Amino acid sequence: MNRKNLHLLISIAVIIPSALMYGLFPEKVLPLLLDVSIDSNDLKNVFRVVMCLYLGIAGIWILGVLRSAYWKFATLLAIVFMGSLSLGRAISFVIDGQPSLIFVLGFFGEFVLAAFSLWQFKRYQH
Fold first, then answer.
1. Does ATP-binding appear among the keywords (predicted)?
2. DSSP string covering 35-57
3. C-alpha closest to that of 77 among 117, 48, 50, 126
4. Residue 73 in contact with residue 64, Cβ under 8 Å?
5. Which of 37, 43, 76, 78 has the CB geometry, 3.0–4.6 Å to 117, for a possible disulfide?
6. What is the rounded distance in angstroms from the CA atom of residue 10 to the CA atom of residue 61?
7. What is the pLDDT of residues 8-39, one digit of tens each?
């Protein structure tokens, strides 16, 4: 693998475990990690949808690593996805106050990955 794909590989390594954490057994895993209670099928459904969304996006990133024709799209998706997550967390910080440590760390990680993906895009887009 070359350095051009590093932002995608890091994003894949972060998002796939996050997706599985959210969606495989949300009623068991999430209460252990977060201050939440998953007590309805509707809420389980939401977390499973998020899991599949994350896995689908990771699939596009994998495609971008494996096929150079998809690298640009995968990188733009990484910028938008990670940037949107960090923006949503920033909005929540302002409106709702500070969340648990895992979400604070998530904000910084997502922001750094968005910025790194943008840097990679500018560096290697040609």
1. no
2. S----SHHHHHHHHHHHHHHHHH
3. 117
4. yes
5. 78
6. 10
7. 999 999 999 999 999 999 999 999 988 889 99
Q: How many CB atoms lie within 10 A of CB 97?
A: 7
Residue type, 58: A
Residue ranges making up the domain that contains 19: 3-124
The structure tokens listed for 64 are 């971008």
Which tens digits make up the pLDDT trace of 57-74?
A: 999 999 999 999 999 999
pLDDT in tens, 114-126: 999 999 999 998 7
CA distances from 67 to 10, 30, 32, 50, 124 (A): 17, 35, 38, 26, 15
Q: How far apart are CA 60 and CA 26, in angstroms?
A: 24
User: Rounded distance, CA 85 to CA 91, Å?
Assistant: 10
